[in-house]
UniProtKB/TrEMBL annotation:
Catalytic reactions of this protein: a long-chain fatty acid + ATP + CoA = a long-chain fatty acyl-CoA + AMP + diphosphate
Keyword Protease annotated: no
Residues spanning the signal sequence: none
Protein name: AMP-dependent synthetase/ligase domain-containing protein
Family recorded in the similarity comment: Belongs to the ATP-dependent AMP-binding enzyme family.
Keyword terms: ATP-binding, Ligase, Nucleotide-binding
Superkingdom of origin: Eukaryota
Top-level taxonomy: Eukaryota, Viridiplantae, Streptophyta, Embryophyta, Tracheophyta
Protein's UniProt keywords contain Protease: no
A GO term, aspect molecular function: long-chain fatty acid-CoA ligase activity
Family matches, as SUPFAM superfamilies: Acetyl-CoA synthetase-like (SSF56801)
Cellular component GO terms, alphabetical: endoplasmic reticulum; membrane
Pfam family for this entry, one: AMP-binding
Domain AMP-dependent synthetase/ligase positions: 98-515
Length: 695
C-alpha cells in the first residue's frame, strides 16, 4: 500500500509544485499525453504543439518565398572578399595558411531569390530530376544556402554531409541514398576524386568554386562536372516552373556526424523543420530586420540549418564566417587584420560549448597575461556581477553595471563584435561556469537548447529572461517532453525532489526515422494512440519545479564499476572540462576495476604558461606533456574541479594520460560539432588506456 501511495502522491505533489511555485516564473506545465506512461510537460504558452507560426505557410519553400517578397531590398547573405592568402612558417618549421579578408559583400533578399530560382532551373537543365537525390558536401557558405533552397523549389531531397567526414562515412552516405548530383567545394571535390571508384550512383558534380581541379575530369571518374556559376547561368537562360513540395515530403536526409559507428541518415520533412523554426521564432524576443546573424557552424548540422532558415524568415541578415576566421586572433587570420565578428558586428550567433569554452579560455589567458591593476579590476568586476546575478548585491545592477561594462567588459565584447544580444548554445551540455562567464563578460544571455537531429533540434530552449545555469529550459512550443522510468539506472518519475527518467520528445518536429534502417527506427520512434510521434532519446533528465529540464545523464554513457558503483562518463567530463589545463577530455571506465581513468588533451597555452612560471625546461610541447610534474599538476587541477562539482572519489579519474595533439574532426576523434567520438578514441588509444590500468 505504501508503494501505491508514493506512486500516486509524489507525481501529484510535483504537479502542484509545478503549478504553484511562488519562487520562480512558471515556464512549463504538466501535459495530458498518450503513449507510454510518464511525466509530461508542455510550454506554458501553448496547449498543443505548434506546427507553423506563419499563416498559410506549410513548407520551407513557402516560408523563404514569403520572406523574399516582404524584404526584397534588404541584405540577406553576406560573404567576405578574399584579399590575400599567405603561408607563415614557425620557428619549428610548421607552416600555417593565413588569410587577409575584406568587408562583407551582400546579396539582397530578392537577388538571393533570383539566384535560388536560377539554380533550381539549372538543376533541371543539367538533367537532375526530382526523383533523384542531391548531396551538399561543403563548408558553410552562401552557396550552401542557395543550393539548399534551389533543391527545395524542385522538391529534391537534399542529403547533407559534413565537410570533415572521413572516406568510409562519405561513401556510405552517398551510396546508401543513391545520390546522383553532388554540390561541393574545391576541397571536398578532391575527397570525391579520392574515393570516386567507390561511388556507385554519382552522375554530376557541381563545384562551388570556379577553379575546378584538373584531376577531376569526367573521363576519369564517370561524372560530368560543372561550376556553380554555370548552373545558375543555364537556369537563368532556361527557366522552368517550380515543382513545390508538400509538408510531408522529405526535405533533408541529414547524416549524423557519427559519434558511434557509421553515420545514420535522419529523414526530415518540410513540416518537421518548419515546426522547430516556428517554435524558436515565438520565444526569442524581437527577432527581425535589425538583427545580423553570424553563420559559421556546419550547415550539415540541424542547429545551423534551422537557424539560417529562421533568420531568413524574419528579415535578418546572415554573414558567413568560419571557426578559423571568427575573431582577430583566430588561427587563419593574418596578424593585424580583422576576424569575421569584428567586421560583421553580429547581434545573434549560435554556438557549441567547445567554441564558448575557447572564448572563455582566451579571455582568461589574456587577463592573466596582462596582470596587475587590469587583472584586479577584471576580477573585482566579475565578482560584483556574479553576486548581482545570484541576488547577493542588488547594487551591482543599474549604474554600477554600466560602470563595469564601460571599464572592463566592453573590451571583452569587442572580441565578438561588441553587439551580441543573444547566443544560442546547443549540440552538447554547456558547463555552468562557462555559461555564467559568457553571460557576464558579453552581457548577453545564452539560450541553452536541447534537441537532436532526430527532432530537428527541437526539444527544449531556455527563456530569454532565465538567468539560471545548468538547465536547458522548458519544452519548445513545438514539443511535448515526457520522462519515463528507467529502473535499471535508478531513475523514476516519482523520485523526489524532482521527477527523473529517460527523455522522450513528441511533436510535429519529430522526424520520420532513419533512412533504410527500419529496425533502428522501430527501436527509437513510437506513434501513440492519438497519432503523436515520439522519439526516445536515451538521455536522462529531471524537471525542475518551474517546468525546466536538466540533462543529468545518458544511458549509453553509464558504466558499472567493479564494486557496483555507476559512473556517468559524460557528467564527469563536463565537470572536469572546466579545468584551464583541459582542451578536451575522455573519461574511461573498465567494469573490472574500481576507478576510472582519463585521456586529457592539454591546453597548450595554459600548460606552457604554468611551465614557464615553474622554470621547467622542455624541447617541445609533446615532451612537456610527458613530464611527471606536468601530469601531476593537471591531475591536481582535475581533482580540484571534481571536488567543486561534488563528484564521488570513484568518479574522479585515478590516473590520466596527457596528450599534446588536439582532437579535430579531420582526425576522426571528434564530430563536426566537436563532440568526442568515444569508440574511435578508445580504439586509437587502446594501448594507453590499458597501461593506465596496468601501471
Amino acid at each position: 500500500m505504501s508503494a501505491y501511495i508514493v506512486g500516486v502522491l509524489v507525481p501529484l505533489l510535483v504537479t502542484i509544485l509545478l503549478r504553484n511555485s511562488k519562487n520562480r516564473k512558471i515556464r512549463g506545465v504538466p501535459a495530458d499525453v498518450g503513449g507510454e506512461p510518464g511525466f509530461a510537460i508542455r510550454n506554458h504558452r501553448f496547449s498543443s504543439p505548434l506546427s507553423t507560426a506563419w499563416e498559410g505557410v506549410t513548407t520551407l519553400v513557402e516560408l523563404f518565398e514569403q520572406a523574399c517578397e516582404r524584404h526584397r531590398d534588404r541584405f540577406l547573405l553576406g560573404t567576405r572578399k578574399l584579399i590575400a592568402r599567405d603561408v607563415e612558417v614557425t620557428e619549428d618549421g610548421r607552416s600555417f595558411e593565413k588569410l587577409s579578408l575584406g568587408d562583407y559583400e551582400w546579396l539582397t533578399y530578392w537577388k538571393t531569390f533570383e539566384a535560388v530560382c536560377n539554380f533550381a532551373s539549372g538543376l533541371a537543365n543539367i538533367g537532375h530530376v526530382r526523383e533523384e537525390r542531391a548531396a551538399i558536401f561543403a563548408d558553410t557558405r552562401e552557396e550552401w544556402f542557395i543550393a539548399l533552397q534551389g533543391c527545395f523549389r524542385r522538391n529534391i531531397t537534399v542529403v547533407t554531409i559534413y565537410a570533415s567526414l572521413g572516406d568510409e562515412a562519405l561513401c556510405h552516405s552517398l551510396n546508401e541514398t543513391e545520390v546522383t548530383t553532388v554540390i561541393c567545394g574545391q576541397k571536398e571535390l578532391r575527397k570525391l576524386v579520392h574515393v570516386s571508384g567507390q561511388l556507385n550512383t554519382v552522375k554530376r558534380v557541381i563545384c562551388i568554386d570556379d577553379n575546378i581541379p584538373s584531376d577531376s575530369l569526367p573521363d576519369e571518374h564517370g561524372w560530368t562536372i560543372t561550376s556553380f556559376a554555370n548552373v545558375e547561368r543555364r537556369g537563368r537562360e532556361n527557366p522552368v516552373d517550380a515543382d513545390l513540395p508538400l509538408p510531408a515530403d522529405v526535405a533533408v536526409i541529414m547524416y549524423t556526424s557519427g559519434s558511434t559507428g557509421l553515420p545514420k541518415g535522419v529523414m526530415m520533412t518540410h513540416g518537421n523543420v518548419l515546426a522547430t523554426v516556428s517554435a524558436v521564432m515565438t520565444i526569442v524576443p524581437n527577432l527581425g530586420k535589425k538583427d545580423i546573424y553570424l553563420a559559421y557552424l556546419p550547415m550539415a548540422h540541424i542547429l545551423e540549418l534551422a537557424a539560417e532558415n529562421l533568420m531568413a524568415a524574419v528579415g535578418s541578415a546572415i554573414g558567413y564566417g568560419s571557426p578559423l576566421t571568427l575573431t582577430d586572433t583566430s588561427s587563419k587570420i593574418k596578424r593585424g587584420t580583422k576576424g569575421d565578428a569584428t567586421v560583421l558586428m553580429p547581434t545573434l550567433m549560435a554556438s557549441v560549448p567547445a567554441i564558448l569554452d575557447r572564448v572563455r579560455d582566451g579571455v582568461v589567458k589574456k587577463v592573466n597575461a596582462t596582470g596587475g591593476l587590469s587583472k584586479n579590476l577584471f576580477d573585482l568586476a566579475y565578482s560584483r556581477r556574479l553576486h548581482a546575478i545570484n541576488g547577493s548585491w542588488l547594487g551591482a545592477w543599474g549604474l554600477e553595471k554600466a560602470l563595469w561594462d564601460a571599464l572592463v567588459f566592453k573590451k571583452v565584447r569587442a572580441i565578438l563584435g561588441g553587439r551580441i544580444r543573444f547566443i544560442l548554445s546547443g549540440g552538447a551540455p554547456l558547463s555552468g561556469d562557462t555559461q555564467r562567464f559568457i553571460n557576464i563578460c558579453l552581457g548577453a544571455p545564452i539560450g541553452q537548447g536541447y534537441g537532436l537531429t532526430e527532432t530537428c533540434a527541437g526539444g527544449t530552449f531556455s527563456d530569454f529572461d532565465d538567468t539560471s545555469v545548468g538547465r536547458v529550459g522548458p519544452p519548445l512550443p513545438c514539443s511535448f517532453i515526457k520522462l519515463i522510468n528507467w529502473p535499471e539506472g535508478g531513475y523514476l518519475t516519482n523520485d523526489l525532489p524532482m521527477p527523473r527518467g529517460e527523455i522522450v520528445i513528441g511533436g510535429p518536429n519529430v522526424t520520420l526515422g532513419y533512412f533504410k534502417n527500419e529496425e533502428k527506427t522501430r527501436e527509437s520512434y513510437k506513434v501513440d494512440e492519438r497519432g503523436m510521434r515520439w522519439f526516445y532519446t536515451g538521455d536522462i533528465g529531471r524537471f525542475h519545479p518551474d517546468g525546466c529540464l536538466e540533462i543529468i545523464d545518458r544511458k549509453k554513457d553509464i558504466v558499472k564499476l567493479q564494486h557496483g558503483e555507476y559512473v556517468s562518463l559524460g557528467k564527469v567530463e563536463a565537470a572536469l572540462s572546466v579545468s584551464p589545463y583541459v582542451d578536451n577530455i575522455m573519461v574511461y571506465a573498465d567494469p573490472f576495476h574500481g576507478y576510472c581513468v582519463a585521456l586529457v588533451v592539454a591546453s597548450q597555452s595554459a600548460v606552457e604558461e604554468w611551465a614557464s612560471r615553474q622554470g621547467i625546461a622542455y624541447s617541445d610541447f609533446s615532451e612537456l606533456c610527458r613530464k611527471e610534474e606536468t601530469v601531476q599538476e593537471v591531475q591536481a587541477s582535475l581533482v580540484k574541479e571534481a571536488k567543486k562539482a561534488r563528484l564521488e572519489k570513484f568518479e574522479t579519474p585515478g590516473k590520466i594520460k596527457l596528450l599534446s595533439d588536439p582532437w579535430t574532426p579531420e582526425s576522426g576523434l571528434v564530430t563536426a560539432a566537436l563532440k568526442i567520438k568515444r569508440e574511435a578514441i578508445r580504439k586509437v588509444f587502446a594501448d594507453e588506456l590499458n597501461k593506465l590500468y596496468s601501471s
